[in-house]
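Q: How would the structure tokens look for this protein?
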Amino acid sequence: MKTAVWWIRRDLRLTDNQALASALNQAESVIPIFVLDPALWAARNVGQNRLAFLLGGLRQLDADLRARGSYLVIRRGDPHDELTALLTETGAEVIYAEEDYSPYARRRDGQVAAGLSLCLISSLTVHPPAAISKADGTPYTVFTPFSRAWKALPPPPATSVLPAPSRIPTRANVPSLAIPTEPTLPPTVPFPPGEAEAHSRLSVFIDNDDPVIHHYAGARNRMDLQGTSQLSPYLRFGMLSARQAAVAAFSAIASAPNAEARKSTETWLDELIWREFYISILYDFPDVSKQAFRANLRDIPWRNDPHEFAAWREGRTGYPVVDAAMRQLKQTGWMHNRARMIVASFLVKDLLIDWRWGEQWFMQNLVDGDPAANNGGWQWTAGVGTDAAPCFRVFNPVLQGDKFDPGGAYVRRWVPELANVPNKFIQEPWQMSAEVQRASGCIVGQDYPVPLVDHAQARERVLAAYRHA
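A: Here is the predicted structure in token form.
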């Protein structure tokens, strides 16, 4: 065919882009297009930092396209209407796009496919949801057997990662809007958008002489260390393909110098599989986006105190590790994964606030906010989801801080009013005597809030609420 359209959604990259490669294989000319969809732009879960990161990624992608003789076409409106107009204007015959599995994406793509020639390519995950099921064809709802089935499939070979095309022939003078300049990414958000940054971070994580991935199992839960890949925003928007990340993981496993390094690398691969597990859950059980997976825990008598919710959002709970994490989120648009579990447990279990309130707040603030992973993580911590933590597991924020921020460096960074509190009290400053409070320049109840709740009492309260449900 003469002309095809490459419809970009969550694949802002040229390397290992199977939808783009399919279009180039079938057409003499390819038109890259991104549609600014008002339904997503105005969604209740939209986050300004995430929008800014997306727009930055589009600008980087446009620059990469122009270096190859192409450019990015921007349209605004209903995707079906805008794609119909583009095909009419250009005579393009088919649309290629990377398949997405969220409920909205499936509805949108179904509407487009009903009137236009749409070819969806499965590359959002290493293995599409339909490829991993039980012997009877039903979906897995527990991670461990899902992981075994995932690993039983042939791993993607290194040669399967497609190089970025050197040239992308595109029809000139296709009308386009400018990429919006607002919102902009604040300088406090430590994630420069774009494919090149994603590749650089992957290399730093895996390819150094003593790579971080070889220490991942032991360091990944330490909030005071740089022990994670911090690739989640790039995987979220496909600036790095899932297949390229998995190939890198398998390569690191094969070259691990010892058992500890191999275990750490396998642990990171498991995190990639968790991502695919939650995508599959949302695909097979779309109602989890609105309600608990476990039907017997859909009627928990939540307290939903708005003042306590505000204190949680703003990092004013009186529990240092919780407040540090919430302030990190507000300032940077990101939060350490262990911290995500701690603050989610505190909101749901200590404050008895509906997990969906927290889920939405995360989506409104996270640069890497992903509907499947975010939903899965919140339901896991709340104990209401598939393969979830037990209902009776209630994280003690003091013990969590002691274990995963042992010197208090994480707390001191994000809660500066506690900077001079002795290590002994950094996770429970209310235990300081009046003399120690004065000496540390932190009067509890004045410079830093008293605890919002008593953890032991809150634990009994939430267990009673879950028993009632």
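The beta strands are 3-8, 29-36, 73-76, 94-98, 118-121.

The longest helix spans residues 259-284.

Upvote if useful.
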